[in-house]
Amino acid sequence: MIKESQRHVDDAVFKQVVDAGDYYLGKVNAGQTFRILDLEGNQAADTLFFSAANPAERYSATDTIREQGNVYLTAGSVLRSNENHPMLEIVADTCGRHDTLGGACASESNTVRYDLEKRCMHACRDSWMLAIAERPEFGLSKRDITHNINFFMNVPITEEGGLTFADGISGAGKYVELTALMDVLVLISNCPQLNNPCNAYNPTPIEFLVWDAPNGV
Amino acid sequence: MQGYNTEISPGGHWSLELRRGTQLTLTDIAGGGNCGMLFYNPRNLLERYNAPDTLKCQHTFKLTAGHCLYSDMGRIFASVTADTFGWHDTVCGNANAQHVASKWGARDYQHHRNDWHQNGYDAFLVELAKYGLGAADMAANINWFSKVATDAEGNLCLTSPSPAGSSVTLRVEMDTLVLLHACPHPLSDATTYPRKAIGLGLATAAPVGEDDLCLNHCDENRRGFANNALYHLGA
Question: Within an 8 Å CB–CB cutoff, is residue A166 touching chain B?
């Protein structure tokens, strides 16, 4: 569902461009809203969320899709934790559909998906491994690296039970906005995938912006 | 290996480290059953079943014969060598105590003994704890015998219960810790708590031949088997 935001970029309290192949790891407080902006189009932002109070509680694709009865994410979707608690709500979305089945690329899965010789290419799960290694203060480990959201990716299911990686429906300037319902850690791998026609083999930067809760909320 | 057969009682749970080359056959004895399953590498419990990789590597939303069940390390825990049902779920996860209580009422062990209403989430927690694992280690699991389809808008629907006697056979491709439960699927809309036992048989699998269904299912699986061969070279 397309739903535009009323927030102005000038009001954001935090802004950071994240290049393809880099990660973003930071805390967003309950009530704050953040935007992931697809600067150049058809980029995948592979995202995980954790409860800041207890990172063992984290985004769960299965709880989220089961409770909403639908496999796609868009405005109105409530993202749930592995404890089935609401963590975040998608409050604006100019893309219309985001994937949470396809998971992140990894050096290891690249060998299976593309070629055994692709093992040395950079991949999202390696960005996450670097993030948890470089930022030990967040208390994350590999066991916390699980089934993620691929913002801006379109992965339709066919009637016969197939999974297709369709051309992206995102474009330059499209965005998704989420309001945190608890204090969360946000871990994004901005995808470096060079083997996928969905992004025309061209990974590009994203921008991460944060707004405080409106006064009195 | 001597064969072994048992029955996982309704709501029951089970785990065993299975050696490479073992064949595991599950049977939905009465029909309309569900068997939740998770895999871990017993030598490195951080390597575990990865539903997204399993689905995208094989361009599928359902699991059936010919499919391989992948770890997050690009390796194959097990392959589906036979399947009489044809469509198994791996995206809906487990029902928890609240789901079960709201659908079918809370029945606890104190009052109902083995006729209580156990749920898949707690059943997995019990088995995970035996290996030093916990809720944070509970990945998206497989739900054997549950067909979950979607419409064009992505709405989920649990359809077509599996017929009595349906079976699925897995060949274990590397030493694998297997956890399973026989609890209801989270999308079940049965009017009473589904009490469905799952039959379980272990035997020695035939060796993987060059004409193997899973090996030849797609180029991706051939590369997955190559990753396993490398793993066994090192292990």
Answer: no
Whose CA is closest to A152, among A121, A131, A173? A173
Which chain A residues are Cβ-neighbours of B154 within 8 angstroms? 70-72, 97, 157
The answer to whether the CB atoms of B223 and A112 lie below 8 A apart is: yes
Sort out which chain A residues have CB atoms less than 8 A from B53's CB and list them. 103, 106, 109, 112
CB atoms near residue B209 (< 10 Å):
9
Per-residue model confidence as pLDDT tens digits over A120-163: 999 999 999 999 999 999 999 999 999 999 999 999 999 999 99
Contact A56 B135 (CB under 8 A): yes
A168 contact B CB<8A: no
Q: Which of B109, B91, B69, B116 is nearest to B214 (CA)?
A: B69
Q: Does the pLDDT of residue A216 top 80, yes or no?
A: no
Residue B116 sits at φ, ψ, to 5 deg, of -70, 175
Q: Give this prediction's pTM.
A: 0.96
In angstroms, the CA A98 to CA A72 distance is: 6
pLDDT tens profile B120-171 = 999 999 999 999 999 999 999 999 999 999 999 999 999 999 999 999 999 9
**What's the average model confidence in pLDDT over B54-64?**
97
Please provide residue A72's backbone torsions phi and psi, each rounded to the nearest 5 degrees. -100, 155
Contact A70 B57 (CB under 8 A): no
Q: Provide the shortest C-alpha distance from residue B223 to chain A (in Å).
A: 5
* Inter-chain CB proximity A101 and B55 less than 8 Å: yes
Question: Which pLDDT band, with edges at 50, 70 and 90, does A215 fall under?
Answer: confident
Q: What is the mean pLDDT of residues B95-124?
A: 95
User: Which residue from A163, A177, A185 is spatially nearest to A59, judged by alpha carbons?
Assistant: A185
- Cα–Cα distance measured from residue B223 to residue B215, given in angstroms and rounded to the nearest whole number: 9
pLDDT one-digit tens code per residue, B71-80: 999 999 999 9
Q: Which residue in A112, A116, A196 has the most chain B C-beta atoms within 10 A of its own C-beta, making it the best mutation to test that interface?
A: A112
Q: B80 CA to chain A: closest CA distance, Å?
A: 16
Which tokens is B7 given?
A: 């029955």
* Mean pLDDT (whole number) for A70-92: 98
